[in-house]
Design brief:
The complex is a heterodimer of chains A (about 110) and B (about 120). In chain A, β5 and β6 form a beta hairpin. Chain A is mainly beta and about 110 residues long. Chain B is mostly beta strands. Chain B has no helices and 11 strands. In chain B, strands 2, 4, 5, 6, 9, 10 and 11 form a 7-stranded mixed β-sheet that branches. In chain B, strands 1-3-8-7 form a 4-stranded antiparallel β-sheet, with no helix packed on it. Chain B is globular, with a radius of gyration of 13 Å. Classes of the chains: A mainly beta (about 110), B mainly beta (about 120). Chains A and B meet through β9 of A and β4, β5 and β9 of B.
């Protein structure tokens, strides 16, 4: 979960394909995880969340998978659209309360027509 | 839906001056707000936790005397960057937690450029 690095990794996909964005988190005690989408110059936009008592949660076109054994999260976007192009961050609630979120490094998703 | 508003959206200030950024929860009350800083092409870095009616809690490495936080009401937290330097230029984002503690709302961010 600690944000590091000066360059965001980029995932390039064709429009209509499925996208999978991965994230490793740091604190095994974290019990709540959120995926955010951030467009240039804007604040983070909530996509989907999952609690540690679940390993999968589905939303509209998006699915989050949680693997607590290896401390790994993934965000799957079905039928990726140009409007999905943005930077995606996972965030973990590591404090056990008060919703103090620690953000991961982020991945830029580039959707090509 | 609930909205968190930040003001100003962008600001340019001279080195050595102080600048204040406001974070308001528009239609809900928030006992806790968080301030993040984001440099270009990087992730959000948590700076501090702002608690209504008490002192803010700063993350390691964040200077509390440089980044003054005031959370005087249940709908307003302010971040004041004192004696700003060009390296303080960044995107500052706040989030607010509803009283129920179930939902986190983010503001749209404030761009600070120090010249």
């Amino acid at each position: 979960g600690e944000n590091v690095g000066l360059h965001l990794p980029t995932l390039s996909v064709q429009e209509g394909d499925n996208s999978i964005i991965n994230c490793a988190y740091s604190n095994s005690a974290s019990d709540y995880f959120i995926w955010y989408k951030q467009e240039s110059g804007k604040g983070p936009q909530f996509i989907i969340d999952i609690r540690s008592n679940m390993d999968k949660r589905q939303g509209q076109r998006v699915t989050v998978l949680l693997n607590k054994t290896v401390k790994h999260l993934s965000l799957q976007i079905a039928a990726t659209q140009p409007g999905d192009s943005a930077v995606y961050f996972c965030a973990e609630n590591s404090s056990g309360g008060y919703n103090k979120l620690i953000f991961g490094a982020g991945t830029r998703l580039a959707v090509h027509p | 839906g609930a909205v968190v508003s930040q003001h100003p959206s962008w600001v340019i200030c001279k080195s050595g001056t102080s600048v204040k950024i406001e974070c308001r929860s528009l239609d809900f009350q928030a006992t806790t707000m968080f301030w993040y800083r984001q440099f270009p092409k990087q992730s959000l870095m948590l700076m501090a936790t702002s608690n209504e009616g008490s002192k803010a809690t700063y993350e390691q490495g964040v200077e509390k005397d440089k980044f003054l936080i005031n959370h005087a009401s249940l709908t307003l937290s302010t971040l004041t960057v004192t004696s700003a330097h060009p390296e303080d230029s960044s995107f500052y984002i706040c989030s607010a937690v509803s009283l129920s503690g179930n939902t986190i709302y983010f503001g749209e961010g404030s761009w600070l450029t120090v010249v």
